Amino acid sequence: MSTIYILWLRQVKRYLRSRSRIIGSLGQPLLFLITFGFGFGSIYQKAGQGNYMQFLAPGIILMSVLFTAVFSGAELIWDKQFGFLKETLVAPVPRYQIMLGRTLGGASVAVFQGIIVLILTLFVGFRPDTLHELLIGFILIFLVAILFTSVGTIIASLMEDMQGFQLIMNFLVMPTFFLSGAIFPLTAAPPVLKTITAFNPLTYGVDGVRGAFIGASTYGFAFDFLITATVTALLLGLGSYLFSKIQV
Amino acid sequence: MKSIITTKNLTKKYGDFTAVDDISFDVGEGEIFAFLGPNGAGKSTTIKMLTTILDPTKGEISLNGHDPGRDKDEVRKSFGIVFQDPSLDDELTCYENMYFHAVLYKIPKEEIKARIEEMLKFVELWDRRDNLVKTFSGGMKRRLEIARGLLHHPKILFLDEPTIGLDPQTRNHMWSYLKGVNSSEGMTIFFTTHYMEEAEKIAQRISVIDHGKIVATGTSEQLKGKTKTNSLEEAFLALTGHVIRDEEASGADQMRLRRRMWRH
Questions:
Q1: Residue of B1, B79, B39 lying closest to B245 (CA atoms)
Q2: Average pLDDT of B9-36?
Q3: Interchain pair B87, A13: CB under 8 A
Q4: How many domains does chain A have?
Q5: Which range marks the domain in which residue B108 is found?
Q6: What pTM was estimated for this model as a whole?
Q7: Could you tell me where the beta strands, DSSP code E, fall in B15-111?
Q8: Cα(B200)–Cα(B214) distance, rounded to whole angstroms?
């Protein structure tokens, strides 16, 4: 327990100390909220779909959770390159505990980032239903954060250095965001797109959070939660396995 | 003398390349033992295998009576290590780095504070305990790593090229405290170096390693006698030849640049 705690604490401390990272990572969600939110708002309304900002805000909150989580997991590459990882790898503690502590730390950071973005969305007109439902939504967000921190850890376990990281951002993280129904409703999407999004775990995160925040979900919150929890468990297991195999 | 580290036919291969080639040696309990060799000789690879972070391709290791392949945690509890490259978290303070280590090594909660204070005073960093490590010089980082490596009272301390980039004052200081711990607590010290005078002055026994093989082992007097030379340097060159060794770049420099770009 103490091992998990100390690794969690380390991730959180590192995050709180990098103010430029916190502020810098708010730029993108803010840009998306303003351009998409206000840009498409009136067209969305004319198409008879209602308030676009209500629809978009949960998607953008999850976007920042996704980015922060993958990045936090992938920070492992730096620890690998700059030596700190070795300090944890020679410690007399099981490696899965180290991985778990790191992942929970990264996920907490991602959730915190999600909360900041939620506050931003309130300023541009987003109105969630109730506080109670907001909390339920954040339980799902925490799961999504663990899921994608594990993805970052998996990538980092397999990569030697940062050379390939841009590739991962462009071919994995960005598509995961755009193909999740975060910015457009899946109900009206063409069948091919629908099929692709069905295989994207973020789809269920976005749908479930939207269900909790504004009471509008395609698959139902319980189903979304179940899928997210299952995928999270699988990826956490895989990440933990790959982490335990790291040799430096 | 009772052995605390024993290896038999230890080998590590990367594809066709043999980094460590069939080496066998013993280190006695309480001994100061050095691996002396040129760049790329297999010194760090051997240390990594002894300290459970790399699995050998072949051969046996016994460390404090345990096999690093099987009883990883028992082996890990018995040593402290100072790696060749820094392994501190730059974004944490000096004290936090020590605390992190104390928790991982399960030092009892009520002892942690006093023990960290003792060790930081020992390496003269107590006044800087609340500074972020990224503000430290190379020598300060090295001292902190030594303090951290000793924190959990290890029976063996591994030091991989511990004095690279340190000025003579710091180097002297460092060895004087380590020799102190060696004699007061009977702690075994295993270090690698390519500095002759360091091996000669500090180590009780030296193994000369080259191309992954141990070419000779003994006291510096024995090595000189064996090669009929007057200095350890001459003995070393007689044993390993005059060819200059290249070490492959690790890409770490490139990484540093990228990290800076990413952060800002």
A1: B39
A2: 93
A3: no
A4: 1
A5: 3-263
A6: 0.88
A7: 17-28, 32-36, 58-63, 79-82
A8: 17
